[in-house]
Amino acid sequence: MKKLYLSFSTLDALIKHPHTYLCKAMGIEQPVNEYMEAGKIAHKIVTDHVCGIKKDPRVMIDLEFTNPEYKCFKDYRDNYALYGFCDAVSFKSKSIMEYKTSTKPWSQQRFDDLIQIPFYSLVTEFRKIFMVTSTSDLINFKVFYKEVVDKEIQKAKDFIEQGIAIIEKGDFTSDLVGGKCDGSCNYRINCHFYKEVL
Asked: CA 153, CA 137: separation in Å to the nearest integer?
């Protein structure tokens, strides 16, 4: 039986804005801004640095990983499979690095509250997580560490089940008002359901 593959980002968008599942199915592109582009460039620099591909003196962290942008998979139930893109992993230490850029670097608490972390831990079965943050211009680095516990894995499973329940119910428009999106979803004005405010 063919499985339906679900990523963290798909599930997250599905739970927050169910109608985006239809936008994705229609092949609509999400808009990209300069901050997202800067973050993408920073991700490449940092992951290349920690994996020893290309060292950059601006990356002020002393971590070593083996695989950048690692795509992980895990079967889930009979009809589904989960996948994600870890910023970097180490098979030697069985650890994951997650990197976030922001105008104000993330805090430990903000990382701890991120369901993406136990989701990746569930899919890879790696419990050791290094969380790295900086500005997109590679200033003000901070590194946090945690080991994902069973309670957090259960939260990830609950998150996945919440998304699957929406898919199996087949109601993807429950968040729309009058059948329209206000432009607050990830697709913004590209959203199929977007109604421009005049």
From this structure: 33
